Records
---
Amino acid sequence: MIFKYQNFFIIFLLVCITTNCFSQKLTIKKIDSLCKILEDNDAFVNLGHKKILQLSNDVYINSKKNNYERGQLIALKKIIETDFNTNQLKDADSKIPEAIQLAEKLNDTQKLVSLIDYKAKYLIHLGFYKEAREKLNLALSLSTKISDKDKMYIMRASIFNDIGSVFEELSAENKNNLDSLYYYVDRAYVEAKMISTNNPKRNRLVAQYARVNGASLLYAGRYEDATKYFAEAEKLLLNEKDTRYIVPVYRFLGEVEYKKAHLEKSIDYFQKAIVLAEKSEYYTELVFLYPAIASPYKDLKNFEKSTYYLNLSRKLNEKIELEKKSNVEKVSIENNKEEKKESQLELYILAGLMIVLSIALGLYLRFKLKNKKTVNTFESKQKNIIGDNNADIIEDTDKHPLKNIDAEQIKYLIDLARNNDESFYLKFLEVFPYFNKKLLSISPNLSMSDLEYCALIKLDFNTKEIAQAKDISIRTVESKKYRLRKKLNLPEDIKNINSWFSDF
């Protein structure tokens, strides 16, 4: 057995050495074969996100070494797609400009349109809806130049769906935008239906946009219409190899049944979704599913099951946070190792600079000390003249200096909010610098509009006060609060969102 493994290792080593001796042409041929793996319809289910990312990085590095721009573009697009799938939106956005430049240079319209669409998705996430619409309009215009009809329909469906997302966000402030939302998500569905029936992506995409239509109708309270779309999506996805796509369909069907007070049915759907999500480690869905199934169990007075799933939800969130922290620490350690290897000269220069700075600091402090003595002598003389009349005032101010400053700052923020001042949120972050980071660690999908509403709630604005500040209806604010609860995954037992934010 040992001899067998030794032979295998020797053969593998010889293959590697032989491969390195071949010309650049063979290297590009090998890159092309890896690109085919990356662009396969079931790449994610076959390899998983981590392996896809590793393979994409290898393809990108080797393509760059060989000045093979097509390989670079394919790898970059797959990295961007993977980053979006794993909510690493900022990382994805940082790679889009280079990818767009390559797509334009290679005259690859389909990839160019897709990349512009990804940029628009990121802008929607940040709350820049006007800029997102401009990008989406550009992508829509360019999409007609895609020669492959199926690829054109796929891209147009995605673009229409993203335009719908813009109106979904805007509908929180103006219900008139709901009609536009329904129109554009339906256009996405219609475009997907035009994909040829023999295309392997068709069922998956038609099901996706049917689900989006169903979701928009669900939140509008049109349960029967929503169910028809969800049922169609379920039928299309039953034979899909990647079972992750059907998980959100079952979750939404469970929500419909829960809204209709069919508690046992809702539990059945949630349970189906949980089994598939746990099997594929689909954490982003499990985050929603565990608290979702806890609600009907609670209504059925099955507190044991309800508590069980709420505990699973808590443990999962803790696990996700630990993994994030672990990844950050891992990257930091790797970066430190590289820095130690490559920057010895920089360390020597830095040490020299530190000595110079220390001398300069010593001279500066000596000057300040001398100057302080002069100031203290002057203040002492002034104190003798003025006397101790202000002693009580000074003592009172020293008791709560931070409290007084905070109260003034909060009053200033409340005034800005009530006047719907554009600078409100920026000023808010100056007072609460970690607010953004903490919220986005809970839900990376929060938009800029969501974060601003959260800030108002943090300042203990009630529904009526938010409506007055934003000059919108109370019903719109209630709708926004409901969606925030969903995005933040707040348990049902937290009745008052303001009290939750007060401890946040």
---
Amino acid sequence: MELIQAGSNIDLTGAKLICDRGECGGCTVMVDGKTIYACMMLAIDAQDKQITTVEGLADGDDLHPVQEAFIQHDAMMCGFCTPGFIVSSAALLNENSKPTLEEIKGGLSGNTCRCGTYPFIFDAIETASRKM
């Protein structure tokens, strides 16, 4: 785990501040393995926690199976919601490696896609679950 100093510009652009109200899921990150909306967490509360953003899911140049599946299934349009969906999907598969469609829908219920790519997202998660 890399320690980031306060005030550092780490150029992570995946988690987007979209609604700033904890309603859309676009800023979803994992904190100590659990998903949270970054817009609802104070920076002081993140101190000494392990934070995983969409950028942290890949292993160097090797994409996480969820990231690969999102590309394979074209599960993105405008892209604003994509990082939040990918992080939420990875967390879901960490907890339930073979979710049903209903479990996928429930696990992602806090994420909103205004473009309506839900069927592609659900297909991507099913594909990723077979790879993990």
---
Amino acid sequence: MSYRGTIVPLVTPLDAHGEVSESDVDSLIGSLEGKVDGLMPALSTGEGWKLSDRQWVDVVTYTVKHSRGLPVLAGIQLPTTAQVVARAKVAVDAGVDAVVVTTPYGADVTQDQIVEHFRTIREAVGVGIFLYNEEAVSGNKIELDTLLRICALPGIVGIKESSGSADYTNAMTRANTGIPVFEGWENLLLQVTGIAGFIGPLLNLEPGLCNEMLTDPRPELQDRINAACEAYGLFGDEWYRPLKEELMRRGVISTAQVVPEKVAA
């Protein structure tokens, strides 16, 4: 499958007891029906790195169940290759179309180890892999040459480019790898060229505005997007919290409860 357009990194709606609310997952997806091109549960906006095993399974399973025919790309944010492979197999059994994977965690991870990480996952898992290029969760960076090496692997179906550097993104799109590149930062949409689409938290609230920006990028739309992100608190460290609060205010989800941070053993 060739991915393009807007793919929404869904928040993870919780009920009052901290369990994933199936009815709210359904409601959230229903509010986006006909406005986005794909669903991405359990990534950073979905607090993927904090979810318990049960919460992760529930939000992915409910998203597949209520997808309304949209492709589901399941986020996996775990420290090691073995953990990612195990969870990816669960995602495949749940019926996802692809898995979204970052690098192994740790500043000491080498570029060769990053390539081997993606090669191992691909050999073990029978669905496409969407590469999540970020640093905040994994604690390391993918160099451009490394990213190009990963793109040469079979089964890489897309890149969520969240480096925060328009120069990096533009260098990636100029490389013409054939792998669709999606911008991951709302405030950079006007500065990047050649992207296949956008994946960002604002899509939970304003998919129409984001689609318009992709179709006809211009400064006044970028200003509106930046203003919306400021108004909704999406540039803060816990952007998913005010995002949930606004979705609750609109009646889309029932609570604004967030997942507690995991306590180290």
